Amino acid sequence: MSEKPWGGRFEAPTDKFVEAFNASTDVDARMYAEDIAGSKAHAKMLCEQGILMQDDLNVILRGLDEIAGEIESGEFTFSIALEDVHMNIEARLTDKIGDAGKRLHTARSRNDQVTTDTRLYLRRRTDMMIARIRYLQSVLVALADEHAETIMPGFTHLQTAQPVTLGHHLLAYVEMFERDAGRFLDARKRMNQCPLGSAALAGTTFPIDRHMTSDTLGFDAPTANSLDAVSDRDYIMELLAAASICAVHLSRFSEELILWMSAQFGFIDLPDAFCTGSSIMPQKKNPDMPELVRGKSGRIIGGLVAILTIVKGLPLAYNKDMQEDKTAVFDAFDNLEGSLRIFGDMLPGMRVNQDVMHKAASSGFATATDLADALVRAGVPFREAHAIVGKSVAYCIRESIELHAMDDQACADIDERLSADMVRSLSVEACVASRNHIGGTAPEQVRRQIAVWQARLEKYHA
Ligand code: ARG
Hints:
Elements: H1 16-22, H2 25-28, H3 32-48, H4 54-73, H5 85-97, H6 99-103, H7 110-146, E1 151-156, E2 159-165, H8 166-191, E3 193-194, H9 210-216, E4 221-222, H10 226-231, H11 234-261, E5 268-269, H12 288-312, H13 325-346, E6 351-352, H14 354-362, H15 368-377, H16 382-399, H17 408-414, H18 420-424, H19 428-433, H20 443-456
Parallel strand pairs: 3-4
Antiparallel strand pairs: 1-2, 5-6
Helix pairs in contact: 3-4, 3-7, 3-9, 4-5, 7-8, 7-13, 7-20, 8-11, 11-12, 11-13, 12-13, 15-16
Arginine is lined by residues 24, 28, 83-84, 110-111, 114, 318, 320, 322-323.
């Protein structure tokens, strides 16, 4: 007979490589605290319901606490022969306390146990993720406050489009991260139901109290359908979708920082502590952290694709394929949390070259739309104004000058409705200041938004 907890009907031992291939301890051992909390809640409920004797409960609770201590102090060795965190802890409990340990698994299966543990673990990690997002937001709001009036070129197609304020640009990311936090919170709500009691798939013959375990573990309610509860991995899909979108936001931000730090842009310099050099080119200072964060997004999105694909063809209820769920989501959470931390720590040390940004915003005809708007205000239909300014730009390119340097003659030659006064009054300061409405880039609006964010993020000080 095999020595496995499930070995009763087996005659031959498990193949050695199968044992290693089958084991998930390297991934799920990190859920030991949740596994122990789940077992304690389950045991207390069994006792309350008269399914387990009080004496047994007492030794079980003590034994589980001791095991937590053994794991924390590094004394505990996880065995791959015992497959996963659940059977390792249960086997150790029986080693320590004998028969009482063998009664713990009454009215329970690893199928409801594993998804309970995973929900509990990811709930905690989701809260940490949201806190990281909040911190990064508050860093960005502080930076935006410093740069509410700093002018830089805004781009479309990575071509100079219109001037914007750096504060406005940074607040764009605060909005994105707000939606990211919202997605995590939303997923957390749906995830927070307790599968315990679903047992293997159909429920149990014992008179369990599912409300009691649900309440003890801080869930909102017991899950309503046992088959669904042990099969559902929607919560992992949702969390990975939220993580992927957040990673994509960080990746876009990374791309901008990398561009801005290049010699060609020269807009910013990132702190030395977040950059690395080259082993051959002595002059190099590379923005490795944003690059790595940009790369991590690929890996996190990979996790989302993995979980969707793993679950796609699975019949109800539990299938072993599901063991692969944790690898994907744990890896994504580790890497996203790390990326958020890097950004939160790196950005306060970013040096902004305001002069270079201002100069870039003042060239490349970033004020052209404003000149067209001035013509419209003088009664010219917008499409005609567009054409007049287009011709003016072509003229300036030929002459290698900026729009505001056009003289009376040049203006009159292009169109009688265009005047040197109009072009002279163009300035990047006026451009940003005049976009003064909800959502606009004017410093006044940026400051208004900063005040809103400061109040909202008060609890999460940068
Ligand atoms: N290690 C397994 C997992 O992560 C736990 C559940 C195993 N259940 C089973 N019936 N084999 O999915």
